[in-house]
């Protein structure tokens, strides 16, 4: 009996530290797995073989053109875990990261939550900030899901105020609200995009590109120095700044890169220029700004909506963003997501070459129809 008691006590004495070690190992493994996606998220998953879409004569490609994939709304999320499980977005930001150049991405949204989430995932980085200002036309479910997304992600901001963006000043007020939200943080450049813009390059490339602007502002590919902004007269309708900024706003604010040091001066100027109505679902532009549009499908402002017909050419374009409609060809958006993911994590050479192409001649080489 004594030997039995000794064996039992010995087993307990050994099992306790072993259990503690096992629990620590499991906890460490779980934490490492959970934290890993802060730096390398999961690759986008869809049912389309995007490699086949580069061959425009293949049966797969032709069959897809006849039966495009359209946006199918996901179920409403009830907690943050469901969002992160679907998109694998990080819950926290790293405390520090060497050489970071914090960016701030801003856009006004009103519908298509799953498209918003898809584009956010394409561009997401834990060291950058994202702000989505909501238009007053957004329905209750869209607002609820957007507010939850902002509450779940520490670097995603969704102001509770709603904006009437049917006018130029309303759109600018929405941007300004986002800019004021984190003005005390050390972001360097803000990138303003329209609701249905999707990126063609990695956020790393966009960040590296913005650093070259320093304290300048770029609107539709045109650079404006600090002295130009400081001396700008909002009543001078013949100035280049007035003409370019009006054209930019008219086309739903796609695309501008604004330095942190100049955003207040720029928006003070813009808010003093004459207000005007913007295109929307009830007021579409009759003029087409991109006549060489393969899809022959246009946005409310006359901008070309890109689709799978354009997919083979996107790897060679110098455009930073293009417009897409998830209700016309959501599969194209998903395939672009794959390309951006590859450029972000597996193909740094393409980003380097694109950077050299854009800046090697010290000229603006972006093929932007809004110039």
From TrEMBL:
Organism: Caenorhabditis remanei
InterPro entries, per the entry: Glyco_trans_14
Recorded GO MF terms: glycosyltransferase activity
Classification lineage: Eukaryota, Metazoa, Ecdysozoa, Nematoda, Chromadorea
Coiled-coil spans in chain: none
Cellular compartments per GO CC: membrane
Listed name of the protein: Uncharacterized protein
Membrane spanning residue stretches: 12-34
UniProt main location, coarse: membrane
A Pfam match: Branch
Membrane-related topology note: Single-pass type II membrane protein
Subcellular location: Membrane
Keywords, sorted A to Z: Glycoprotein, Glycosyltransferase, Membrane, Transferase, Transmembrane, Transmembrane helix
């Amino acid at each position: 009996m004594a030997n039995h008691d000794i064996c039992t006590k010995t087993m307990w004495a050994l099992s306790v530290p072993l259990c503690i070690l096992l629990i620590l190992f499991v906890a460490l493994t779980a934490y490492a797995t959970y934290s890993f996606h802060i730096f390398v998220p999961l690759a986008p998953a869809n049912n389309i073989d995007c490699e086949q879409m580069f061959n425009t004569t293949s049966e797969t490609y032709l069959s897809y053109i006849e039966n495009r994939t359209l946006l199918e709304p996901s179920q409403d999320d009830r907690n943050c875990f469901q969002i992160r499980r679907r998109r694998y977005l990080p819950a926290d930001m790293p405390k520090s990261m060497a050489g970071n150049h914090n960016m701030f991405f801003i856009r006004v949204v009103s519908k298509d939550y799953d498209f918003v989430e898809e584009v956010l995932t394409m561009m997401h980085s834990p060291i950058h900030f994202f702000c989505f200002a909501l238009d007053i036309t957004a329905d209750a479910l869209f607002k609820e899901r957007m507010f939850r997304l902002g509450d779940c992600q520490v670097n995603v901001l969704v102001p509770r105020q709603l904006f009437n963006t049917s006018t130029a000043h309303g759109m600018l007020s929405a941007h300004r609200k986002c800019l004021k939200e984190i003005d005390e943080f050390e972001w360097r450049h803000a990138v303003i995009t329209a609701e249905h813009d999707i990126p063609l390059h990695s956020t790393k490339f966009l960040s590296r590109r913005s650093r070259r602007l320093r304290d300048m502002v770029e609107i539709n590919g045109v650079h404006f120095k600090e002295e130009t902004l400081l001396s700008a007269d909002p009543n001078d309708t013949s100035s280049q700044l007035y003409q370019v900024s009006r054209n930019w706003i008219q086309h739903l604010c796609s695309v501008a890169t604004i330095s942190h040091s100049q955003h207040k001066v720029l928006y003070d100027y813009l808010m003093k220029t004459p207000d005007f109505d913007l295109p929307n679902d009830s007021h579409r532009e009759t003029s087409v700004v991109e006549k060489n549009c393969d899809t022959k499908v246009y946005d409310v402002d006359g901008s070309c909506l890109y689709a799978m017909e354009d997919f083979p050419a996107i790897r060679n374009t110098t455009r930073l963003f293009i417009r897409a409609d998830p209700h016309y060809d959501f599969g194209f958006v998903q395939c672009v997501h794959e390309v951006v993911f590859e450029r972000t994590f597996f193909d740094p050479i393409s980003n380097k070459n694109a950077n050299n192409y854009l800046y090697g001649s010290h000229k603006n080489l972006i093929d932007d129809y809004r110039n």
